[in-house]
What does this fold into?
Amino acid sequence: MSDKNPEKGEVSRRDFLGLAAIGTAVLSALGVLAGVLRIFKPDVHFEESKKFKIGKPEQFPVGTVKKFDDKKLFVFSDEDGFYAITAVCQHLGCIVYKTDWGFQCPCHGSKYDQMGNVIGGPAPRGLPWFKIEQLVDGSLVVDASKEVPKGTKYIYV
Ligand code: FES
It folds into this structure.
């Protein structure tokens, strides 16, 4: 005999345990379903491409120094060709700025010469140079995933 009175809207212990069991089963089924659906979502982390167009060679007359703020990169053009040097300080990653004598980091004072070699401050290594190549449509492309030896220039013919 139940000690609860259904006419008063009270739930018996048996009914409560039954509802709790059904609730637990539904939650478990939803958890399993979520796990199964997760299988169909690829576990891919998209990363921005490190290869990007910078424009046509005509946009870089000899003597040009162009900073690409969004790519953290300087592109230079001289009589020998085009070259790209990172703007990321090799100490802790601040963005360097161009000076008459090279590059200066505003954070802790690292200094780099025109080639990106360290000439002062705490930076443990020079500024990397990146590969430049040209597409069939004539556009120049910097590949920031490929470091090249300092002094390597893309020669436009
Ligand atoms: S981040 Fe450039 S000197 Fe420290």
Observations:
- Residues 13-39 form the longest helix (27 residues).
